[in-house]
Amino acid sequence: MTITARRAVAPSEHTMGERLADYVLPKIPTERLTAAHGRAWVYPNRGLSFLQGGEKRQGKRFNWRRPYFTQVGEVLHCVAPPGHDYIHHYAELLRSACLLSGLPEERVDLELPAEGHGRAFVDHWLPAELPTADLVVLGYVEALWKNQGEWTHRPGFGWRAVRVGGATVLMLGCEFSFWGDLAGDLVSVLAQRTRTSGVLYVGKLGGLHPDMVPNTLVVTGTTTRLRDRPLAWNSFLDLTSAPPSVRPGVRHATLSSVMDETRTWLDTHRLDTDVVDPEIGHMAQAATEAGIGFSYLHIVTDNLNGTHAHGLYAERSTPVATRRQRCLHDIETVLNRSLT
Questions:
Q1: CB atoms within 10 A of CB 56
Q2: Which domain of life is it from (predicted)?
Q3: Can you tell me the distance from the alpha carbon of 313 to that of 318, in angstroms, rounded to the nearest whole number?
């Protein structure tokens, strides 16, 4: 089913404000969008060969594949992995790019994946020979325990096994971004194959409180709001004597897209929500339904109040990299204690 996208969010309505263009425009081929007069179609495909929109940067093994843009007649096609949230996110990016470029924003259509296609996509590409482990770590896998284990690569994924305390930990990297509900599909497939009894997600998210300085704070919790419904689970992390940078017990909300983080949403939820991202709720729900453990340790990388210099629109500077490395060290500290 093809759906005509809704009205684009203007910079004045988004928590990034005027920096929204710095986040959106690098992700969209604006010259081709202009040539198509703003006409675009976002739709799913289960083939990895279509995820060619990103260049594999030197030294980066994972999270480099991006949706593929191609012009067909007078329409710009955007081919993305078969996740509802992925399709929604790129439709939002395209609409915003139209608005920022002075193009009609109502010409962006999207086609959502059929039920179960996301899980089938993950199940197809997740290697059959993936080893069993006590814990699978997803997300920032290259930066943790760098000196342990050798990487094994297959199309779409790579892994290495490390020993942490008395546990075997599988660092599982993904070449494409498992955005939103696809992250839940990945956890479901891992559990279905009985590859692990627990999943830890190490990633990044947005903070709602002014004191959450980007790239200086690690957060974790056991609650979220997913599709406006509360969800709670138990954490396997030992947070006694955790580093000062680690803030436990935060109240999380799951949103489909960064583009949904509007000023109106922030004003509505700043009293009942501390942090927000697109994946944690889906992963927690999948783990709960499968009967395996789930925890997360995330770096706050942007502040929705817009009161700090760094955010999702400026992630690759040296100060940001240095601060994040300190946070990752503190995450290792928590895990070393939790798995001993």
A1: 11
A2: Bacteria
A3: 14
* Claim to verify: residue 87 and residue 131 sit in the same structural domain: no
The number of CA neighbours under 13 Å toward the Cβ of 243 is 18
Say if residue 231 is in the same domain as residue 332.
yes
Q: Token digits for 4?
A: 């005509």
Is residue 182 domain-shared with residue 46, that is, in the same domain? Answer: no
What six digits make up the tokens of 63? Answer: 């999270």
Helix/strand/coil percentages in the chain, nearest 5:
30, 25, 40
> Final residue of a domain: which of 114, 145, 173?
114
Same domain, yes or no, for 285 and 224?
Answer: yes
Please state, in angstroms and rounded to a whole number, the distance separating the CA atoms of residues 340 and 167.
Answer: 8
- For 264, counting Cβ atoms within 10 Å of its Cβ (0-12 exposed, 13-18 middle, 19+ buried), the class is exposed
Q: What are phi and psi of 245, to 5 degrees?
A: -75, -10
User: How many structural domains are present in the chain?
Assistant: 2
For each of the chain's 340 residues, which pLDDT tens digit applies? 555 556 899 999 999 999 999 999 999 999 999 999 999 999 999 888 777 655 555 567 898 888 999 999 999 999 999 999 999 999 999 999 999 999 999 999 999 999 999 999 999 999 999 999 999 999 999 999 998 999 999 999 999 999 998 899 999 999 998 999 999 999 999 999 988 999 999 999 999 999 999 999 999 999 999 998 999 999 999 999 999 999 999 999 999 999 999 999 999 999 999 999 999 999 999 999 999 999 999 999 999 987 655 555 555 556 788 889 999 999 999 999 999 8
Chain centre to alpha carbon of residue 85: 10
Domain boundary among 114, 142, 159: 114
In a shared domain, residues 325 and 275? yes
Same domain, 109 and 138: no
Neighbour count for residue 340 (Cβ, 10 Å): 10
Both structure tokens of 295: 């925890």
Q: Are residues 218 and 268 in the same domain?
A: yes
Taking the C-alpha atoms of residue 62 and residue 56, their distance in angstroms, rounded to an integer, is 8
Range of the domain at 212: 119-338
